[in-house]
Amino acid sequence: MNSIHLKNLENELKEALADRFVSLHHFFDELTLVVRDKDIGAVCEMLRDHENFRFDTLIDLCGVDYLTYGDDKTAVGQPEGRRYAVVYHLLSVDLNQRLRVKVFAEDSEFPIINSVVDIWPAADWFEREAFDLYGIVFSGHTDLRRLLTDYGFVGNPFRKDFPLSGYVEMRYDEDQKRVIYQPVTIEPREITPHVIREENYGDSH
User: Fold this and answer.
1) Any idea what the Cα angle at residue 120 is, between residues 114 and 124, rounded to 5°?
2) CA 133, CA 146: separation in Å to the nearest integer?
3) What gap in Å lies between CA 33 and CA 30, rounded to an integer?
4) Pairing mode, if any, of strands 168-173 and 137-139?
5) Do 113 and 88 form a contact (C-beta atoms < 8 A)?
């Protein structure tokens, strides 16, 4: 999208949404729309159906954990004290335009966001993935189960306070003839890579 098209889209979004958005940012030739959690369903439906937007395709949906961002407020549109966000990447095939939508969960202890499966069916497995990896609950999703981790998995591995080695490990027990879970036997450690560069590496000649 060229800069004129982006500016027009930005102005149209501001006019159509009125007071139903928190902020609208223009960075690196992309627009990021931050929406309140209570408005996400209505806003997404409008973005799909409005003749000036027609975002008929959900390209991606992902969770984000802003655990370490709260101190310096560097996250775009992050309200104070809110840790988890969901990010939607939208495409209008008809109008050849894209938009990023972001919503922060109000409760950081038990994050809940309304599902958009009824608006874009492609959100089904994306929301299950965010639920599995971040523990974000999508209200209204009819089949919210873990997608990538094991049935007995404890915790949410993409949360920033989840240990790198996890809580348990699994192995096949020859005596019991089955897979068992046991406490992690790996000692936690930090690995700092040793980087060797040739003399004058990166200098232009």
Assistant:
1) 70
2) 8
3) 10
4) unpaired
5) no
What's the token pair of residue 2? 């060229």
37: closest CA among 104, 127, 83, 87?
Answer: 104
* C-beta separation of 58 from 90 below 8 A: yes
Contacts of 88-91 with C-beta under 8 Å, sequence gap 24+, read: 88/44, 88/58, 88/60, 88/61, 88/116, 89/58, 89/59, 89/60, 89/61, 90/47, 90/55, 90/57, 90/58, 90/59, 91/55, 91/56, 91/57, 91/58, 91/59
CATH 3.40.50.1980 fits 3-149, yes or no: no
At 148-196, the pLDDT tens digits run 988 778 899 999 998 877 778 778 989 999 988 888 887 766 667 677 7
Residues in the chain, total: 205
CA distances from 145 to 116, 134, 135, 175, 194 (A): 16, 13, 11, 32, 41
Residue partners of 110: CB distance under 8 A and separation at least 6: 137
Q: What angle do the packed helices 3-17 and 40-49 form, to 10 degrees?
A: 130
Model's pTM, two decimal places?
0.82
